[in-house]
Amino acid sequence: MTDFGEILKTVGDFGRFQKCLLLLTSLACPSIAFHMFGQLFMVMHVPHHCDTSWIHEISPNMTKEQQLNLTVPRNTPGSYKECLMYTPVDQDIDSILEYGLNSTEKCQKGWVYPSEQEQTLVTQFDLVCDRKELNDISQSIYRLGLLLGAVISGSLSDRIGRRPVTLLSMLMMGAFGVGAAFAPNFYVYMALRCLVGFAVSGFIISTVTLGTEWVGVSYRTHPVAIPLCCFSIGQMVLAGLAYGVRNWKLLQIAGSAPMLGLLFYIWVLPESARWLVMKGKIEEAKKLLQKAASVNKQSIPPELLDQMTPEKKSKSGNILDLFRKPRLRKTTLIMCYAWFVNSLVYYGLSLNMGIFGLNIYLMQLVFGAVEIPAYFNCIFLLQWFGRKKCQGCFLVLGGAMCLIITCIPKDLPVVVVTLAVIGKFAIAASLSTSYVYGAELFPTVLRQTGVGVCSMSSSVGGSISPLVGLLDKYHPAISMVIFGSTPVTAGILCFLLPEMCGKELQDHTEAAVASQRACENVNDSYEIGDLNLKEDSQKVWTQEHALLVKPAIRR
């Protein structure tokens, strides 16, 4: 059978067809940024106090200030407590004014918020006091959706194709995202957010694999870096959108509805021709390749297409196949840990923007802006220095910045923010590299499954990143030490992986393992050959030196 890479070179490594595909996968990325970080702006603190309208039954003409003075205890600075109230009594107003109220209890009839306050998730579902933890739970539920999406969508895409999983994920993101704005209670909202997370994970890993399998060797960074740049633009747009739209329902609809407008993809989004070949669907692959060549204004020789025949090894792999062979197992474990650390630190910094001392809208804008050069520069850095060096160095740099932050006094917020921005830059670049590297390391029959397992590990890291921040109550530096030490160890481990820069994608597990072994053997042979050359040179030099010295001794 003709190598698919040779056919792709004839079609065009990165022609108009691939650029259109890249545009399609990039248009949806700003909406993904909203689903990732939008809830941060829906649950900001709102002043509140217990509903103590019971006293109006005793004295209906009481002013707001008089009511609060009698029924709500004060904090030391003079403000009212937000989660406590005085226990209602069955007395007349004169007795209450003379003796006052002493015993306190938790709010019984809900809470009261400022009348001018726009409706947020906090005010809509009373996410305050004992119910405040529901916000953190909802974020974990969303991460659970990401986790399930990585596990199920990865294997599903290897079985039914990249295209149907991508389209289904887009439909789910749009429908359930808009539906969350009309949730009757917070539990329904969390369930819909879980389904959105499932769809987001499925869309990301499907489009990364689809783009990687359509471009040539020299352009594999483009299907990852460019959509991620659009994702960063989405983060910047989110900062302005959240600042201007304070009503959470309108914000939810504005961030989710654009995905429904992209459902025309059902007519224009192509399937992966490489996947079709691996599944034995040769005729479909030929038609798709001819269409791509036509769009790129190229032509494929008929004899080249005729050499495409179904392969015997076309069955899909499963998760267990990733761990059966030692080299593939080592690759899987290291990449899973790298993805885990990337997500842990990336979301740890992104979801805790308030700890850096600047306005949350400004920090969202800055963090989004700094990721664009990180992703864009990866296009060139990965080609110049290779995947392994970039992955390892970016992780080590990001971890080092977090460790240095622990040594900076809190009264220097500008220095802390600068280091955090550099750390976010490095981690974002590492995140981009991991998508490129991961898609290259796994063979076609396991590519989506392998990327799905790595994405699952990434979801676990994102899920526990808010929990790491809770450790700061024991010591303020604990979270940053964790965010700093884990990337450093992951970066060192990445140097054990094989380099994939400039190499063709492997289709089968045997080929992938053989390729890694051949790569290691070639490196070893170069080292041994260099050593032998040095030894031979040393022997020649010694012999020549002896011939010159002997005549001198005789004289």
What does this protein look like?
- The protein is mostly helical.
- The chain folds into two domains: 4-44 and 125-494, Up-down Bundle (Growth Hormone, Chain: A); 49-112, no CATH class.
- 68% of the residues lie in helices and 2% in strands.
- It has 22 helices and four strands.
- It has helices at 4-11, 16-27, 29-37, 64-71, 93-99, 121-125, 133-160, 162-180, 186-214, 222-244, 248-260, 265-268, 273-278, 282-295, 302-306, 326-350, 360-385, 387-405, 413-441, 444-470, 478-494, 509-554, and strands at 49-50, 84-86, 104-106, 111-112.
- Strands 1-4 form a two-stranded antiparallel ribbon. Strands 2-3 form a two-stranded antiparallel sheet.
- Helix 8 (162-180) runs antiparallel to helix 9 (186-214).
- It starts with a helix and ends with a helix.
- Mean pLDDT is 80; it is low at 518-555.
Helix coverage percent of residues? 55-70%
N- and C-termini, Cα separation: 73 Å
Strand order of the largest sheet: 1-4
C-alpha-based Rg, rounded: 30 Å
Strand proportion, as a percent range, falls in under 5%
Count of extended strands: 4
Q: Domains counted in the coordinates: how many?
A: 2
Structure characteristics:
single chain, 555 residues, Growth Hormone, Chain: A, two-stranded antiparallel ribbon, 22 helices, 4 strands, 2% strand, disordered C terminus
Topology:
Elements: H1 4-11, H2 16-27, H3 29-37, E1 49-50, H4 64-71, E2 84-86, H5 93-99, E3 104-106, E4 111-112, H6 121-125, H7 133-160, H8 162-180, H9 186-214, H10 222-244, H11 248-260, H12 265-268, H13 273-278, H14 282-295, H15 302-306, H16 326-350, H17 360-385, H18 387-405, H19 413-441, H20 444-470, H21 478-494, H22 509-554
Antiparallel strand pairs: 1-4, 2-3
Helix pairs in contact: 1-14, 2-10, 3-10, 3-11, 7-8, 7-9, 7-20, 8-9, 8-11, 9-20, 10-17, 10-19, 16-19, 16-20, 16-21, 17-18, 17-19, 18-19, 18-21, 19-20
